[in-house]
Amino acid sequence: MGLDAIEYNPCDKIDDKPPIAFGIHRHATDEETEVIKNHLAKAHPELLNLLRVEYVTGMRPDEILQVKYTMVDWLNSVIKLSYEVGKTKVFRLVPVPAFLLDWIRERQGDQPATNYLFGRKLQSGPRSLTTNNFSRLWNKYVKAQLGLDVSLYSFKGAGGDAKRDVGIDRPAVSVGWGHTSVNTSKIYLEKEGERMRKQIIANSPDF
Predict the structure, then answer these.
(1) Pick the residue with more confidence: 26 or 128?
(2) Based on the number of CB atoms within 10 Å of its own CB, is 160 exposed (0-12), middle (13-18) or buried (19 or more)?
(3) Helix (H, G, I), strand (E, B), or coil: what is residue 60?
(4) Any idea of the CA torsion for 117, 123, 129, 131, to the nearest 10 degrees?
């Protein structure tokens, strides 16, 4: 059969230019990630804690700053994220793995449930931290001290890629992120095109 009989090439549907693959929202390399983790463990452990929560849950940094212990549904292992953004009310259920749920429970201890998960100085407490103050911390400890032009926001996508790598499907990742469309998640997943190519190579049947 001639090549002109092929109606389409499945590879044509693969995005080879993920929107956040380059620039400030690129994903940190494995080496850069380890440098950031090791540095923050000594220089600012609470910033490392917030980075972990973003990576695991897929919540944006500004959303994490809104979380109070009252939002944690311990029985169903979710954070009931609810807050106002301008005139819009945001509400969604954020899945929380058991290991992170245990960490949140230990972090709360005997504190009031109305306390923030990350308050002033990123410590758990009754007062919230503004996004501007938080951004200054990231700029100081990561961008200035390490010289790495990587945004904290990029770890949302990096965490999603890690979920895909262990077999969690893209619709599930999208649900965790609160996306109404599965296609929306593609812009955060730098490695999705690579995964699709490998799937085609490994599973395509012979003629």
Answers:
(1) 128
(2) buried
(3) coil
(4) -90
Q: What tens digit of pLDDT does each residue of 66-91 get?
A: 999 999 999 999 999 886 655 567 78
Q: Are 72 and 79 in contact (CB under 8 A)?
A: yes
Which of 141, 148, 131, 159 is CA-nearest to residue 46? 141
Q: Write down the mean pLDDT value for the chain.
A: 78
Of 40, 76, 81, give the one whose Cα is nearest residue 59. Answer: 81
The most distant pair of C-alpha atoms in the chain lies apart, rounded to whole Å, by 72
pLDDT at 12 (0 to 100)? 46
Contacts of 130 (CB under 8 A, 6+ apart): 65
Q: According to the 3-state scheme, what is the secondary structure of 155-201?
A: HHHHHHHHHHHCCCCHHHHHHHHCCCCHHHHHHHCCCHHHHHHHHHH
**All residues at 6 or more sequence positions from 45 whose CB lies less than 8 Å from its CB, including other chains:** none
- Give mean pLDDT, residues 112-125: 96
- Determine the residue type at 178: G
